[in-house]
Design brief:
heterotrimer, A alpha+beta, B alpha/beta, C mainly alpha, A: alpha+beta, Alpha-Beta Plaits, 2 domains, two-stranded antiparallel ribbon, two-stranded antiparallel sheet, about 35% helix, disordered C terminus, C: mainly alpha, 3 strands, about 0% strand
Chain lengths: ~290, ~450, ~325
Amino acid sequence: MSSIILITIISLSLIALISAVILYFVAQKFKIVEDPRIDEVQAILPAANCGGCGFAGCRNMAEAIVKATTLEGLYCPVGGAKVMNSAAKILGREAPVTDPRVAVLLCNGTPENRPRTSRYNGASDCRISNNLYIGESDCSYGCLGNGDCVRACAFDAIHMDPTTNLPVIIDDKCVYCGACVKACPRNIIELRKKAKKDKKIYVACSNCDKGGPARKACNAACIGCGKCFKVCEFGAITIEKNLAYIDAIKCTFCRKCVEECPTGAIRELNFPPRKPKVEVQNEAVN
Amino acid sequence: MLKTFPSGGIHPPENKLTSNIPIGYLPVPGNVVIPVSQHIGAPATVIVNKGDYVKTGQLIATGNGFVSSNTHSSVSGKVSKIDTIFDTTGYKQPAVFIDVEGDEWIGTIDRSSNIAREITLSPDEIKKRCFESGIVGLGGATFPSHVKLSVPEGKKCDILIINGVECEPFLTSDHRLMLEKGEEILIGISILMKALKVGRAKIGIENNKPDAIDHLTKLAAGFEGITIHPLKLKYPQGAEKQLIKALINREVPSGHLPLDVGAVVHNVGTAYAVYEAVQKNKPLFERVVTVTGKSLSKPCNYVVRIGTPIGRLIEAAGGMPGDTGKIVSGGPMMGKAVSNLDVPVVKGTSGIVVFSENESERKEPGPCIRCSKCIGVCPLNLQPFLLMKLAELGMFERAEKEKITDCMECGCCSYTCPANRPLLDYIRLGKATVIKLARQRNLK
Amino acid sequence: MSNLLNISPSPHAHGKETTQKLMHGVVVALMPALFTSIFYFGIGAVIVTAASVISCLVFEYLIQKFVFKKPVTITDGSALVTGLLLAFNLPSNIPVILVVIGSFVAIAVAKMTFGGLGNNPFNPALVGRVFMLISFPVQMTSWPVPAGFKTGYADAVTGATPLAIIKEGIKNGESVSQLMEKVPATIQMFLGHMGGSMGEVSAIALLLGLVYLLYKKIITWHIPVSIIGTIAIFTTILWLINPEKNADPMFHLMAGGVLLGSIFMATDYVTSPMNTKAMIIYGCCIGILTVIIRVWGAYPEGVSFAILIMNAFVPLMNTYIKPKRFGEEVKNG
């Protein structure tokens, strides 16, 4: 009887010993040395795994934050400056100041402005229609309206307006992650600096064609006439490839360019109504 | 048991409405728009200016480099402008606009109707003539023909395969050409054989064209090395690799050219164009186009000058029906939908198919039920459902491993999908992206 | 131009096949089996089938409408097929409330939690059936004996299925030749005159369904043939080794759910492999598992479990077993 117990104890101990040795060597062989700070940083991140930072998930973002020499260019859109500051504290670094920005669609090709010349009937995907042909209108730069940006947005900040067939961006929900910018095959979404009360003045057009063809394709096209460039007192407007661009940092929201623009390509948003003297035509755009 | 390729393929309704209608000659239109580049490869350069007077057959744009081709004026008249126009690519492309004045051909073209049988040119001269005359593959791919005739060092071609399959529904231009210009085609094939220095050529024709098979078989008795082979009806038999497999049972390895198995494939239309270029010194400026559609009152086959707006063709076929929903340049399986009637006929336009609103509307896609029908019909044995999903989700690296680039875009998967899923739309997107990514990788 | 032209990528033609047509094809193929079960089990079969089909459709409708808040697609026929198949796997005198519970598990748990049609890893009807078999074993294994068309529902005479008779008998030490006298003759089994779940009893009706499915090209031969073939071969080997302990292959094929399972359940599009090579492996594995469960397992019948187990391997098979591509390996000359 006692011998059975003895044998059991010895054999079990031997098995335990051998297993322990094997486990030890395996653990040594497959050891992964990881910076413990990665876990700490990950704990701060929102764990939404939205991909808004440009990484696959929060873990990857945490790795990138720890490995990076500077936090420039790394930003968690969900957690915002608060999260970035606490991440910087863990690493003993300074978090760069990131201005809040907001996504803006550089196209105003509503069916009225931009007459339709065909009906797209293929798979509802901008990348496909962009590869296939010019799009439902004659403008080869404008919005295709198949909603890739809507699908790319993890924050429900973009939806399609069924009447204009253009995406509408909800400023309050936008965390300027840039997913829509990447998703758009025509690169017509821009992240602009957010102003007080969400005021916006921008050229809602991306057409680089010369004035004639651009105007023919769309009534609201920027024709590169340069009137806004001349009227701007702050040097905020540049014209390149027949297309005006308003620098959001230099712009003072004087709205002179809006009045000057012959096609209404420059849009103003979230301004109080103008004084009665000035024509209110542009307000209708809102 | 008739030959065909082994796996996959579909049997779409043939709808060959025009197979009994002889080829007519469409009058020269009032103005033409000739896209400068009508071939695959490096774009051509325009050599005429606004206001110049050009003759029919005159060179107006020269090909740059080896894989490129010349473009000729198809009419005589004045160059009104050089601008851009929507062509079948769906984007604006540079084109030469010509206002027609009379029809004065350049002097070197032999306009007599007698058939020239004697082949006097040497292989190299033939290749040069093909390049000069702007001959490209007329099946639709528009690959410059002289490139296919130049066998690179170290490779050997032992057989010429002629594609008379015309597996696309509706189209009959090759069929009619084989019936009406049989002898010229056979001479053209002999020229191609001489250029390639091969002793035999096989013409593959699907057995829905028994008259063409009979006609060419009788004629081919007088030509050494040319044989006619009826093939079982199956789409996409006209695809190069499928045709080679069906005719000579050689399988072109993935990512390789037919030349790697010793074969070169040309279309019957190309053979005819080669005949005209070599024997009659006539550059490629007109081609046979089938104008068809169930709703058209007079579907027909026409010899059409390159650059004629397709609206003219539809007019000649009885006018545009009121309920037209879609106009396709090419066949219904691989052709391209055009957005307006000003799109010009180019070298690759084998047909214009008009669909009514009902025929053209795509149905709402449903969820994939994994019925695996797309796998069953894929002639390349790919897994279309998977490739579509990968492309949709942007997983292009995985798609590359699944050989998305093997896809030849025949459309069998989309055709057969019971859930109406746009399989090929996404696969094409994935393929284009994978090729782009690979090119970027190679640059680095 | 007043009406704009449609633009879409090629192809510009589409075949006539639709999901709905395929599903309705399966329903048509199930009809012979439905009629024979009504013939043998009477009004009970009608009630169970109706309860199952209606509750499946209702659950699918409710979930799509109020949980998914997406367009309702119950007309595509998939819930109809699930309902019919579930009913076919039940005894004809089972209380209706249990049928409703089974339908709920089939549609809500096995299908909709994964996202609906096309996304479920397991065959919904089988999940419903197995759930009921484990939860209500008494009701699920008291099989009414066929007695012509009867209007009674609960008063049916119940008896054991041939498979259960054999299983019990062998456990009790009886030999197969003795047991064979207790089970219906082969011809009766072929026609369906035996105890069992509603749809599985009549081999002839199921084979008619198979012919229809193959003729309409709704399924390919690979899965049914490989399952039936494997079971036949495996049971023949066992039978040859010891005919006193193991039933003959003909008995194994006719009794129980082999035909129903191999023709209608294992071939379910969503939960079966997508290429022919994988289909054959899948079928063979189902066959082997079925025989193992039948001969050595605790349950007399194993088709449902075998199919569900293999369903779990389908994603793996789809990933690792691929058709040979055109031009992948070339042997010329």
